[in-house]
Write a structure and sequence with these properties.
single chain, about 200 residues, alpha+beta, 4 helices, about 35% strand
Protein backbone atom coordinates (compact mmCIF):
# COMPACT_ATOMS: atom_id res chain seq x y z
CA UNK A 1 0.00 0.00 0.00
CA UNK A 2 0.99 3.63 -0.42
CA UNK A 3 1.87 5.95 2.43
CA UNK A 4 -1.28 6.84 4.39
CA UNK A 5 -2.83 10.16 3.32
CA UNK A 6 -4.65 12.16 5.96
CA UNK A 7 -5.19 15.39 4.06
CA UNK A 8 -4.35 15.16 0.36
CA UNK A 9 -4.58 18.91 -0.26
CA UNK A 10 -1.76 19.73 2.17
CA UNK A 11 1.96 19.22 1.79
CA UNK A 12 2.06 17.93 5.35
CA UNK A 13 -0.58 16.96 7.88
CA UNK A 14 -0.61 18.49 11.34
CA UNK A 15 -0.97 16.26 14.38
CA UNK A 16 -4.21 18.07 15.24
CA UNK A 17 -5.79 17.17 11.89
CA UNK A 18 -4.53 13.61 12.19
CA UNK A 19 -5.96 13.26 15.67
CA UNK A 20 -9.32 14.75 14.68
CA UNK A 21 -9.74 12.52 11.63
CA UNK A 22 -8.74 9.46 13.64
CA UNK A 23 -11.29 10.29 16.32
CA UNK A 24 -14.06 10.75 13.76
CA UNK A 25 -13.22 7.47 12.01
CA UNK A 26 -12.96 5.46 15.23
CA UNK A 27 -16.35 6.73 16.37
CA UNK A 28 -17.90 5.01 13.35
CA UNK A 29 -15.63 1.95 13.08
CA UNK A 30 -13.78 0.81 16.18
CA UNK A 31 -11.79 -1.68 14.06
CA UNK A 32 -10.11 1.09 12.04
CA UNK A 33 -6.32 0.84 12.13
CA UNK A 34 -4.77 3.16 9.53
CA UNK A 35 -6.18 5.93 7.31
CA UNK A 36 -4.96 5.87 3.69
CA UNK A 37 -7.34 8.25 1.93
CA UNK A 38 -9.43 11.21 3.00
CA UNK A 39 -11.60 13.34 0.71
CA UNK A 40 -13.46 16.25 2.21
CA UNK A 41 -16.77 16.01 0.35
CA UNK A 42 -18.48 13.45 -1.90
CA UNK A 43 -22.05 12.53 -2.83
CA UNK A 44 -23.30 8.95 -3.04
CA UNK A 45 -26.16 8.20 -5.44
CA UNK A 46 -28.16 4.99 -5.67
CA UNK A 47 -29.27 3.33 -8.91
CA UNK A 48 -32.94 2.36 -9.05
CA UNK A 49 -32.99 -0.94 -10.96
CA UNK A 50 -36.80 -0.95 -11.12
CA UNK A 51 -37.09 2.16 -13.28
CA UNK A 52 -33.46 1.90 -14.51
CA UNK A 53 -32.29 5.38 -13.58
CA UNK A 54 -30.33 7.16 -10.88
CA UNK A 55 -32.25 8.62 -7.96
CA UNK A 56 -32.42 12.41 -8.11
CA UNK A 57 -31.24 13.04 -4.56
CA UNK A 58 -27.99 11.77 -2.98
CA UNK A 59 -28.32 8.73 -0.75
CA UNK A 60 -25.71 10.39 1.50
CA UNK A 61 -23.08 13.11 1.21
CA UNK A 62 -20.17 13.86 3.48
CA UNK A 63 -16.47 13.13 4.01
CA UNK A 64 -14.94 9.99 2.51
CA UNK A 65 -12.45 7.86 4.47
CA UNK A 66 -10.47 4.97 2.94
CA UNK A 67 -8.69 2.90 5.56
CA UNK A 68 -7.26 -0.36 6.84
CA UNK A 69 -8.97 -2.25 9.63
CA UNK A 70 -8.25 -5.29 11.76
CA UNK A 71 -10.69 -8.11 12.38
CA UNK A 72 -10.57 -11.37 14.31
CA UNK A 73 -11.43 -14.16 11.86
CA UNK A 74 -11.10 -17.84 12.70
CA UNK A 75 -9.52 -16.75 16.00
CA UNK A 76 -6.76 -14.92 14.13
CA UNK A 77 -6.11 -11.21 13.67
CA UNK A 78 -6.48 -10.24 10.00
CA UNK A 79 -6.13 -6.94 8.15
CA UNK A 80 -8.80 -5.77 5.74
CA UNK A 81 -9.83 -2.52 4.07
CA UNK A 82 -12.97 -0.42 3.94
CA UNK A 83 -14.32 3.00 3.13
CA UNK A 84 -17.01 5.08 4.76
CA UNK A 85 -18.85 8.33 4.02
CA UNK A 86 -19.58 10.30 7.17
CA UNK A 87 -21.65 13.37 7.95
CA UNK A 88 -23.14 14.72 11.17
CA UNK A 89 -26.35 12.71 10.82
CA UNK A 90 -25.28 9.26 9.56
CA UNK A 91 -22.60 7.24 7.83
CA UNK A 92 -22.34 4.71 5.00
CA UNK A 93 -19.70 1.99 5.53
CA UNK A 94 -18.54 -0.52 2.92
CA UNK A 95 -16.01 -3.29 3.49
CA UNK A 96 -13.76 -4.12 0.54
CA UNK A 97 -12.99 -7.62 -0.69
CA UNK A 98 -10.93 -9.13 -3.51
CA UNK A 99 -13.97 -9.58 -5.79
CA UNK A 100 -15.16 -6.02 -5.28
CA UNK A 101 -16.54 -4.61 -8.56
CA UNK A 102 -16.09 -0.94 -9.40
CA UNK A 103 -15.63 1.28 -12.44
CA UNK A 104 -14.86 4.96 -12.93
CA UNK A 105 -16.08 7.56 -15.41
CA UNK A 106 -14.75 11.10 -15.08
CA UNK A 107 -15.80 12.23 -11.58
CA UNK A 108 -17.87 9.14 -10.72
CA UNK A 109 -16.99 5.76 -9.26
CA UNK A 110 -19.69 3.09 -9.53
CA UNK A 111 -19.72 -0.02 -7.38
CA UNK A 112 -21.93 -3.00 -6.61
CA UNK A 113 -22.65 -4.27 -3.10
CA UNK A 114 -24.74 -6.87 -1.29
CA UNK A 115 -27.34 -5.35 1.00
CA UNK A 116 -30.00 -7.40 2.80
CA UNK A 117 -29.41 -10.28 0.37
CA UNK A 118 -30.01 -7.94 -2.56
CA UNK A 119 -27.51 -6.40 -4.95
CA UNK A 120 -27.38 -2.62 -5.17
CA UNK A 121 -25.50 -0.24 -7.46
CA UNK A 122 -24.12 3.02 -6.07
CA UNK A 123 -22.00 5.82 -7.46
CA UNK A 124 -19.67 8.14 -5.56
CA UNK A 125 -19.59 11.61 -7.11
CA UNK A 126 -16.33 13.51 -6.56
CA UNK A 127 -15.57 17.21 -6.98
CA UNK A 128 -12.93 16.50 -9.63
CA UNK A 129 -11.40 13.65 -11.64
CA UNK A 130 -8.18 13.68 -9.61
CA UNK A 131 -10.05 12.78 -6.42
CA UNK A 132 -11.96 10.05 -8.23
CA UNK A 133 -8.84 8.46 -9.73
CA UNK A 134 -6.93 8.73 -6.45
CA UNK A 135 -9.64 6.93 -4.54
CA UNK A 136 -9.96 4.32 -7.27
CA UNK A 137 -6.22 3.68 -6.89
CA UNK A 138 -6.74 3.14 -3.15
CA UNK A 139 -9.40 0.49 -3.88
CA UNK A 140 -7.21 -1.29 -6.44
CA UNK A 141 -4.20 -1.35 -4.10
CA UNK A 142 -6.37 -2.56 -1.23
CA UNK A 143 -7.67 -5.44 -3.36
CA UNK A 144 -4.14 -6.32 -4.47
CA UNK A 145 -2.96 -6.37 -0.86
CA UNK A 146 -5.84 -8.61 0.23
CA UNK A 147 -5.33 -10.90 -2.77
CA UNK A 148 -1.67 -11.39 -1.91
CA UNK A 149 -2.57 -12.05 1.72
CA UNK A 150 -5.22 -14.59 0.69
CA UNK A 151 -2.82 -16.38 -1.68
CA UNK A 152 -0.18 -16.56 1.03
CA UNK A 153 -2.62 -17.99 3.54
CA UNK A 154 -3.97 -20.56 1.10
CA UNK A 155 -0.51 -21.77 0.13
CA UNK A 156 0.71 -22.11 3.70
CA UNK A 157 -2.45 -23.29 5.46
CA UNK A 158 -4.45 -24.78 2.56
CA UNK A 159 -7.55 -23.28 4.16
CA UNK A 160 -9.39 -20.31 2.61
CA UNK A 161 -9.72 -17.38 5.01
CA UNK A 162 -12.28 -14.62 4.60
CA UNK A 163 -10.77 -11.19 5.15
CA UNK A 164 -14.12 -9.53 5.88
CA UNK A 165 -17.04 -10.62 8.05
CA UNK A 166 -19.06 -13.35 6.28
CA UNK A 167 -22.27 -11.53 7.21
CA UNK A 168 -21.28 -8.62 4.97
CA UNK A 169 -21.36 -10.82 1.89
CA UNK A 170 -23.93 -13.51 2.71
CA UNK A 171 -24.61 -16.36 0.29
CA UNK A 172 -27.83 -15.95 -1.66
CA UNK A 173 -30.02 -18.23 -3.73
CA UNK A 174 -30.21 -18.61 -7.47
CA UNK A 175 -32.98 -16.01 -7.80
CA UNK A 176 -30.81 -13.33 -6.27
CA UNK A 177 -27.85 -14.50 -8.34
CA UNK A 178 -29.89 -13.97 -11.49
CA UNK A 179 -30.79 -10.51 -10.24
CA UNK A 180 -27.14 -9.77 -9.62
CA UNK A 181 -26.19 -10.88 -13.14
CA UNK A 182 -28.99 -8.77 -14.56
CA UNK A 183 -27.89 -5.66 -12.66
CA UNK A 184 -24.26 -6.20 -13.63
CA UNK A 185 -25.21 -6.52 -17.30
CA UNK A 186 -27.18 -3.29 -17.07
CA UNK A 187 -24.30 -1.48 -15.36
CA UNK A 188 -21.64 -2.69 -17.79
CA UNK A 189 -23.81 -1.96 -20.82
CA UNK A 190 -24.60 1.58 -19.72
CA UNK A 191 -20.99 2.33 -18.80
CA UNK A 192 -19.74 1.16 -22.18
CA UNK A 193 -22.44 2.53 -24.48
CA UNK A 194 -24.38 5.33 -22.86
CA UNK A 195 -22.71 8.59 -21.85
CA UNK A 196 -26.03 9.81 -20.39
CA UNK A 197 -25.67 7.17 -17.65
CA UNK A 198 -23.48 9.56 -15.64
CA UNK A 199 -25.03 12.86 -16.72
CA UNK A 200 -27.75 12.61 -14.07
CA UNK A 201 -25.07 12.58 -11.38
CA UNK A 202 -22.97 15.32 -12.96
CA UNK A 203 -25.99 17.61 -12.98
CA UNK A 204 -26.23 17.35 -9.17
CA UNK A 205 -22.86 19.05 -8.52
Amino acid sequence: MSTPILHPNSASTSSQIQLKLSQILLQHDSNAKRLYEYIYHVKVFRYNSTVMCWENQPFIEGSLFGYEKQLIINNQLRSSFAFTVINKMKHFLQDLHVDYREQTSKCCLCFEITQNNQYQIYSIHFSNENECQRFHMFIKRAKQTMLKSTSSLNSSENVPVNLVPPSAFANVGSTTTNTRDHLRDILIHLMQTNEEFFEKINQQS
